[in-house]
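User: quick one - fold this with zinc ion bound?
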Amino acid sequence: MIAALILGLITGSFTGVICYRIPRNESIIFPGSKCDRCAVKIAFYRNIPVFSFLLQHGKCHRCGIKIKRSYFILEILTPVLFLILYFSHGFSIIFFYKAFVYSILLAASFIDIETHIIPDRFFIILLITGFLYSVLRNNPENWFLGAASYGLPVLLLYSASDFINKEIIGFGDVKLICAAGGFISYSGLKNLLWFYEILYISAGIFSFFLIFFRKRTLKCYVAFAPFICFSVFISEVYL
Ligand SMILES: [Zn+2]
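Assistant: Sure. Structure tokens for the protein plus zinc ion:
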């Protein structure tokens, strides 16, 4: 359990690095982390997930610029998720597979929130690992059926955007849902409908509150990837 927790803390911290560097086209391995404003290098003892953020009150130790709270949220969410996975699967291949997929989905969510773009490489990585895993489990047809059935409704919705000249859903979301469908795999029309209901209801409620509290207007962009991530999780755990 401690191992799952530590693995989650490290992965969450690394996912934060990915979320910061991929949209900026920087290498995700080198150099080490540095502050956004004063460029001071962050020593390893100041780079301990969760604790460093709390000890430094979410600020850079030299210049005092605020570190984005989203990294802190990632550093909390990932270990919690890893613990849930550990309790349901132990340290098995399925644990590592799911931990990997959810980390990618979380990274896609946070990048979508910040930049309104879901990088293609996430979709490609998810498709490849999903396919390889299904081959390993001897049921690639389930993976394919999942990707096709979950992807089709949003693909139709996306095509419909052309006719009414208004973007209902981004193509990045379509691709992410398709890859997520392969991950969930097809298990009946009822579960498929549930997935879409959770997706649209959660996104709808969230948008309603944003508009209600006047933080956004109807025309604003709301990142869809976090809701895809949430719906995948609910579908996976409860359906
Ligand atoms: Zn600084």
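One thing worth noting: The chain has nine helices and no strands.
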